[in-house]
Amino acid sequence: MFEIKTNKSLQSTPEEMDLLKGKIQAKIVKLRDLSEYTAKVIEDTEAELLQIFKEKSFDMTGLFALKKDDLKNTETEEMTVQLRLEELIIENNKRLIITNNSIEQEEAKYQNLKKSLVVQQFCPETLPRPGVKKKRSKIQTIGLPKIFGGSLDDYYEATGEKIPLVIESCIRTIKMFGMRHQGIFRVTGSHVDINKFEGAFENGEDPFACMMDGNQINSVSGVLKSYFRKLNEPLFSEEYFDQFMNITRHFAPPHVVSVKQKIDKNIGENIEFVVKARDIVRQWSEPHIVVTRYLFSFLNDLSQYSEETQMDPYNIAICFGPNLCPIPEGKDLVQHTNLVNDLIKNFLIFCDDIFHDEIDGPLYIRTDGLDAGHDDQVQEDATKEPNEDQPKLQPEEAVALYDYKSGTANELSFDKGDNLLLFSKANDHWWKGSKDGVKGLIPAQYVQINGLEEIQEDLLTEKKETEYARKPQENEYCEPIVTK
User: Hey, what's the torsion of the CAs at 166, 168, 171, 175, to 10 degrees?
Assistant: First the structure.
């Protein structure tokens, strides 16, 4: 057997290959323009020829011509026009076939060069897509911007808000009632409720502002997924799809299944996946970056309650993948579905590293209101006895506005309407307090201090009305009154 060897002196360098790839790309663009122009000429010529066939002439003077030569001249002119159009169609079809064949050949060359460069880790570029169009900015002149089916940039131009109300409201409600809800985002909500909520947001309302419990939390999560699914331009748009698939396939981060595992292994922002993903994200508009950072910070926080929700990063990625990164037409669905899920999972786990650059816009605040490094310290402080040297503060009475189930041993569980004692604030989101003599942390947004008597009275009235509504009334089955 003979061994085939390549003379390295005859092999092109990556720089030369990249230069040649750029020339081929420019040629492909010109050939596509020529192909589109030729196809348009053929279409117009066929329409003109079809019009000739459809025309009905009612002029009978030619049949009464004094000389036969006059009749022949008229027919000859009509046949000449028809033949000219037919020949034009044939010639342009030949040109179109040759041009399309040239495009196929040049794309094959481009694809081969791209694969060679990717193997050499020289260039993450991808084949130019003919259907990708640059976003054109639109200025909202009247009325509310379109929410479902609109775009993030248009919303920002119309309102000046980088985080749309629907995103902020959905995430705020899920933080309050759904962070420990089993199957959140996996269990489908009521389509009737989702459509009703979407209509309210389109009218500029916030239907979740007065939500008092989590009975419709699956519909709330459905609205959030629906918003991203209907965006005019997805978060991971078709323009960057191939680049994201490339870094997911060739520069995958070390295998981790949770945020905690990533922190334990001390995997940081210097891995190749994070660096290359950050380079792509920097090409996006500010509203696009701010919304993506806000969403993935929330999903990152949610994934840490996976023992209760049964939604780890990969399960969340399965639910959000088709909404955030739809697979373009013509792509292998089986192959790219797994890559999309891996991409969303990695963005969720490494979101703090990918969105490392400072950019003006709202930041998501985690449910504990603390960084992971300070959480244990506050939990310990909540159970410590106060120092005798410190002045004792008078505890404040509060009433629970909602039911709350503790997530850790140092948090307190309570029901709506329970009386609580608040000693001091651990931070902006937690109180140090007690319930029935048991001390622990109490979430600040679940309790109310001012107007304690009025709140208790309202809660008692609401409870009585609910019980009254469930009981059958005495006169519910009375005989009807008959008038004479």
Answer: -140
- How far is residue 470 CA from its own chain's centroid? 42
Vertex 27: Cα angle to 22 and 28 (nearest 5): 95
Q: Which residues of 317-341 are buried (b: 16+ CB within 10 A; e: fewer)?
A: bbbbbbbbbbbeeebeeeebeebbb
- In angstroms, the CA 171 to CA 294 distance is 10
Cβ burial of 382 (10 Å; 0-12, 13-18, 19+) is buried
pTM for the structure as a whole: 0.56
Q: What is the DSSP letter of 78?
A: H
pLDDT at 63: 57
Q: Under a CB-based contact definition with an 8 Å cutoff, are residues 153 and 137 in contact? A: yes
Are the CB atoms for 48 and 85 separated by under 8 Å? yes
Specify whether the CB–CB gap between 432 and 413 falls below 8 A.
no
**Predicted confidence (pLDDT) per residue in 56-66, tens digit:** 665 556 555 55
- Tokens at 220, concatenated: 């709330």
Classify strands 447-448 and 396-400 as parallel, antiparallel or unpaired. antiparallel
CA–CA gap between residue 63 and residue 73 (Å, rounded): 12
Handedness of CA 136, 140, 146, 152 (dihedral sign): positive
Return the SS3 of 420.
Answer: strand
Phi, psi at 300, each rounded to 5°: -60, -45
The residues of the chain scoring below 70 in pLDDT are 1-12, 56-75, 117-144, 367-393, 407-409, 427-429, 450-484
The pair of structure tokens assigned to 336 is 């790219």
Scored b (16 or more CB within 10 A) or e, 70-83 reads eeeeeeeeeeeeee
Structure tokens at 414: 């309570």
Dist. CA 153–CA 151, nearest whole Å: 6
Q: Per-residue pLDDT tens for 71-81?
A: 555 567 777 88
Alpha-carbon span 342 to 115, nearest angstrom: 21
Q: Measuring CA to CA, which residue among 89, 108, 109, 107 is closest to residue 97?
A: 89
Listed in sequence order, the DSSP H helices in 282-397 are 286-303, 306-309, 313-324, 333-349, 351-354, 372-383
What is the distance between the alpha carbons of residues 413 and 425, in angstroms, rounded to a whole number? 17
Return the pLDDT at 393. 59
Determine the pLDDT at residue 128.
Answer: 43
User: What mean pLDDT, rounded, does the chain reach?
Assistant: 79
At 431, which helix (H) or strand (E)?
Answer: strand 430-435
pLDDT, position 267: 85
User: How far, in Å, are 77, 87, 261, 382 from residue 83 at the CA level?
Assistant: 10, 6, 75, 93
Looking at the DSSP bridge assignments, the partners of residue 432 are 424, 441
Whether 320 contacts 299, CB under 8 Å: yes
- End-to-end alpha carbon distance in the chain: 115
* Cβ neighbours around 57 below 10 Å, total: 8
